[in-house]
């Protein structure tokens, strides 16, 4: 079991400005202790001869071919727009910008 104490958890909570009850401090002490113990176990196994890995199984990206399919015409795309000119959507100015 790790050496994390209730006082350390209370101190960390105070630094983080988190109000904890004594029951919450007790519970977090045990949970943080379990986390520290787990990290210690991994550190024992992670020796220089064990290569670092980000995933337990090798992964590769799977891409589909980029094939041009059926697309909308400009008129079809603009048909449902509340406002548009001949080839573009018209939207309200934002952030005080002028058109």
Average pLDDT works out at 87
* Alpha-beta classification: mainly alpha
Say how many strands there are: 0
Please identify, by name, the CATH architecture of the domain at 6-45.
Answer: Orthogonal Bundle
**Can you summarize the main beta sheet?**
none
- Which series of helices and strands comes N to C? HHH
Describe it for me?
The chain has 99 residues and is mostly helical. The protein is 39% helix and 0% strand. It has helices at residues 6-15, 22-45, 74-78. Helix 1 (6-15) crosses helix 2. The protein is elongated.
Secondary structure layout plus pairing:
Elements: H1 6-15, H2 22-45, H3 74-78
Helix pairs in contact: 1-2
Task: Looking at this protein, list some descriptive labels.
single chain, 99 residues, mainly alpha, Histone, subunit A, elongated, asparaginyl-tRNA synthase (glutamine-hydrolyzing) activity, ATP-binding, ligase, protein biosynthesis, transferase activity
